[in-house]
Write a structure and sequence with these properties.
Layout: H1 7-16, E1 20-22, H2 23-28, H3 33-42, E2 45-49, E3 52-55, H4 64-73, E4 78-79, H5 81-87, E5 98-101, E6 113-116, E7 125-128, E8 131-134, H6 136-146, H7 150-162, H8 168-178, H9 180-195
Parallel strand pairs: 5-6
Antiparallel strand pairs: 1-3, 2-3, 4-5, 7-8
Helix pairs in contact: 5-6, 6-7, 6-8, 6-9, 7-9, 8-9
């Protein structure tokens, strides 16, 4: 492996992640621990959490806690459940932990991160603000299935529809995929919105 740090390759990584990167990602493009430390001392990188940095030319994200949790959980993880609902500003529920869907093979438990291993289809994941997050429809189905108060789920559905964040078809697809409580609440919320 070439040990010379490649700032261009690092920039390409962080550009997709809202300016943030992990020490492991930096090592893969030639940054030693000493080089990371020197860049931090010189002001090029800002250390935001253990093993997570931000290039200073990128502004700090309002969702930095979510980005740190996502990067800490690994590149195949996705912000989900109540954390995704808060990200979309569809709830005033503030989860005590960041909810992340990880592959079933993920084995490391992490402080302040609630890991879920639900399977995700490619059409249930989106990227916003450098963050990988479940789509609005998938998020609503997840919180409805997991037991979030029915009124809060209905409110999230209605607000998401009013703000154009999701279509009725997307919600109906998730309702059918999920079934049970999620389907019942989502269909009820859509009906209530149609009657307005």
């Amino acid at each position: 492996m070439d040990t010379k740090p490649d700032y261009d390759r690092l920039y390409n990584i962080v550009e997709e992640q809202g300016g943030y990167f992990t020490a492991a990602q930096a090592r893969r493009v030639g940054f030693s621990w000493e080089r990371l430390s020197n860049n931090g001392k010189s002001g090029k990188f800002q250390r935001v959490a253990s093993g997570v940095y931000r290039l200073v030319q990128f502004p700090a994200s309002a969702h930095e806690d979510l980005i740190v949790a996502w990067l800490t959980a690994g590149p195949n993880s996705t912000i989900s459940h109540e954390s995704a609902l808060a990200f979309y500003e569809l709830s005033d529920v503030l989860p005590a932990e960041v909810h992340v869907i990880v592959p079933r093979t993920a084995s490391h438990r992490r402080a302040n991160i609630r890991q879920h291993t639900n399977p995700l289809a490619p059409d249930e994941i989106t990227r916003r603000g450098g963050l990988q997050v479940t789509t609005v429809a998938r998020t609503v189905a997840d919180v409805a299935s997991r037991g979030l108060a029915e009124e809060q789920v209905r409110q999230a559905v209605q607000e998401a529809l009013q703000r154009g964040l999701v279509s009725q078809e997307e919600l109906l697809t998730q309702a059918e995929r999920r079934g049970g409580r999620a389907k019942k609440i989502i269909l009820s919320a859509i009906q209530k919105e149609i009657k307005k």
